[in-house]
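#structure-requests
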Amino acid sequence: MQKPQIHDRITHRPSAFTPLAADWSWADDAQFAVNDLAAHYYEASLDPWPGFEAVQDEVCCDVAVIGGGLLGLSTALHLAENGVDVVLIEADRVAGAASGRNGGQLTPGLARWDAGTMVDQLGEAEARRLWRFSGAEAMSTVQRILADYELDVGYRQGHLTAAVHPGHMAGMLTDADLRRHLGDDSVELVGAHQIQEFIASDVYHGAAFDHLGGQVHPLALSRGLAYALHKNGVKIHEKSRVQAITKCAQGHQLICDSGRVLARKSVVLAAHVQAPDLLPDRMPTAVPGYTYVSVTKPIEGGVQSLIPSLLAVYDSRIQIDYFRPVAGERLLYGGLGTGTRWSPEKTRDYFMGRLTHVFHQRDDLALDFCWSGTFDLTLNGATDSRYYEDLGIYSVHGWSGHGVAQTIRIGKAISDDFLAKNEDYRMLTAIEHKGLPLGKQVAPLVIPSVSGLMTLKSWLRPAEMQSF
């Protein structure tokens, strides 16, 4: 198996992934059957994926990891590096869902819990510990893997949060001050004039420069983790949807489409979409939502003409936008969270409107790729990490669109917990979550309602930043 390599030049081609639910992917001027799902930018910028065989007959292991996204891959890798006999099972292809379709932003925090929320919810001492876990430790865990396996996945350190309202600078100052109080001095504020050195746009009133965060090609990162698993002798089985998990005298029996997996010691459920089906008696604690990403055609004059700093950028709107440079002198532009999935046409119009607003000095920007993605959202905004003692199963979901680095770190925490190394994972399971008995049904109402409430609060108190 080869390491992933990101190409500057791409060729539009059909996707090798099976779309999750009704997720779509559009590419401009695609020269193939209209009914084919187009490869999104990440897939098109990598070599075709050779893939792995499905489960055949019976496979035995100590720990079975269900889900070939970033969480499952990281968990399996950290277990394997510690000598555990582990097998990874994926229903489609590695990183075919959110892990390979997201915006690729690396940000500290646990889902929508920033430093202030952690202090409010947990108190200062525990907040310090959780912020370090979900910030510096999350980033260093990613960096360690990239260095150990010599992976080039488009990683660049540092990102900006750009203020769309002058009042938001006060909120950024408060957040930077609180992070410093928790032991994190990685944020510096950028003024309204200085920001022109970072972004070629006059719509922002300053920014917070976060030296801890960054950006990455998420599909290349996922395939890099799969490469690392292969180097450690781990069996990966794709096209192997788990239909049921049953306890037996030998451990856990996983019934797949074309075979079975016997996990003698434990199971890690790292596929949030399958969780309700595989744990039917457990009340869901998250609702599904939909988000979108686009990538431009190559930028005349290079992407540095738009982002001189080449840093990933968030804005401070309620429904945040984010943009960053990607290979081939292109700009990735993403954002938005909706309760019902938008069409390709509506999404393309939205992103072109946003591009025109931010970079209104340019009239030559055009989209080459656009796609939708599915994420899950908890009521309290934090990721829901659980260990079911009666089942012997680990389960994590509720990333709220902020989980690229944290999935890697939580995968290590699961491995450490299984090996009884520390209490990091138990720290996460102590966060309480309320059940949502009609999660899927209420999703179209929850997201617009939360967004509307935050918009109202931002009008009344602009210095208190609200993001969703």
